[in-house]
Amino acid sequence: MRLVLVTRLRNLTNELSEGCTGRIRKIGRPPLSDSMLFTKLKHFRLAVTFSLAGTLAFAAACAGGTDVPVGTGQPLVNSFVEESRPQQPAKPSENISIAAVGDIMMGSNFPDDSRMPPNDGRDLFSPVAGILKGADIAFGNLEGPLADGGVSEKCGTGRANCFAFRMPTRFAGYLKEVGFDVFSVANNHASDFGPAGRASTRLALEKAGIKFAGSDRGKYSTAYLTVGAKKIAFIGFATNPISLDVNNLVAARAAVKAADKVADIVVVSFHGGAEGSAAKRVPRSTELFFREKRGNLPLFSRTVIDAGADLVIGHGPHVLRAMEIYKDRLIAYSLGNFGTYGRFRLEGDTAETLVLTVDLGPEGEFMGGKIHPFRLEGWGVLTADETGSAVATIRRLSGLDFPDTAPEISENGTISN
After folding, report:
1. Which of 348-382 are b and which e, b meaning 16 or more Cβ less than 10 Å from the residue's Cβ?
2. Where are the domains of the chain?
3. From first to last of its 417 residues, what are the pLDDT tens digits of the chain?
4. Which of 8, 79, 97, 246 could be disulfide-bonded to 135 (CB atoms 3.0-4.6 Å)?
5. Other Cβ atoms within 10 Å of 193 Cβ, number
6. Running DSSP on this structure, what letter comes out for residue 336?
7. Distance between CA 163 and CA 165 in Å, rounded?
8. What is the rounded CA–CA span in Å between residue 303 and residue 373?
């Protein structure tokens, strides 16, 4: 009886398909035998439901001339069988909210403690705690290792413009207290204290209950978090020899596709682009900084979205950069400095900062967002910015660099597609 019912539904669907030639777009997949169909579907009632729903949907599409992705011969049953995971809960309909910030270096105790933040750094991010805790996931770029000792061989002697950072491991607890859930550790300072520093960073974050991505190209490249019934992947890219490389598009595509197979939403973070006030614009070519290739970032971002990424977050230039929408996915090319204390006197473009909040739909599509503007005062004290300069900067740069794909950004920082 079961086989007869499925066969009749399948035949009806195929008859509709033959009448819709040229009107329904088909994505070819090899047909399933009846035995394979019942093996892959855990419950027969579910199979019948989806078969009937597929038939009715197919008929409606035929009448209206709508393009729908279907499998060869078995339009929607085949798609369900191959793409679903019956043991996982169905995707909930609610959106996922993500709060994201740029570069964080809370103060380095190397080579000494003279440039450490007041109150040991506990209060650095108090102004944004409400925003971070209000999101489902709070993300940032951790610009340097968490370690309580060690030796840095990065700079050697007599090298100008070379900086080695080291934050105490206790800072991980402060980051958790303020609301952070996951960090990218894929950047040019993550290895300032070598493999031992990277290992210490992973251990400190794990103890604090914070996930991390980008600590290597394999095991530690991707972090997975769960919000409700959804799994969210974060993948970290940079231009160092340890992490996945923004210049290697083949590896980037493969990493995103692998994450997309097991996660409902994929977020890509990259550390790339030239640095400083002269690097505010986003070129459509490979950027260089001190002869290092820092990525063709529009090409990279669109490549990972084509592979399945739902949100792309950039950092590295130490200034704010443009945003654009590509295939209903948001790309933020640089969120600038966020918590860089003690080593640089920040002013002008390098002092502009923000918290970006983004709402993603059930399939990862961009539903809306907001720029919350802040400034870094003095040696890096985070302060609310009533002038909204970060909003104005991103509006202007987005219009200049991506006139056809820039999102709508209102004066109060609201972002819409």
Report:
1. ebbbbbbbbbbbbbeebbbbbbbbbbbbbeebbbb
2. 2-83, 96-416
3. 444 443 443 444 444 334 443 333 333 334 443 333 333 333 433 333 434 344 434 334 343 433 333 333 332 222 222 233 333 333 445 899 999 999 999 888 887 787 788 899 899 999 999 999 999 999 999 999 999 988 887 776 546 666 888 899 999 999 999 999 999 999 888 888 999 999 999 999 999 999 999 999 999 999 999 999 999 999 999 999 999 999 999 999 999 999 999 999 999 999 999 999 999 999 999 999 999 999 999 999 999 999 999 999 999 999 999 999 999 999 999 999 998 776 666 778 999 999 999 999 999 999 999 999 999 988 888 999 999 999 999 999 999 999 999 999 999 999 999
4. 97
5. 26
6. -
7. 6
8. 29
**Dist. CA 142–CA 382, nearest whole Å:** 16
Tokens encoding 264? 């409902």
Q: Which two tokens stand for residue 382?
A: 């985070």
Q: Which CATH number fits domain 96-416: 3.75.10.10, 3.60.130.10, 3.60.21.10, 3.10.410.10?
A: 3.60.21.10
261, two tokens: 């197979």
Rounded to 5°, angle at Cα 143 from 295 and 154:
85
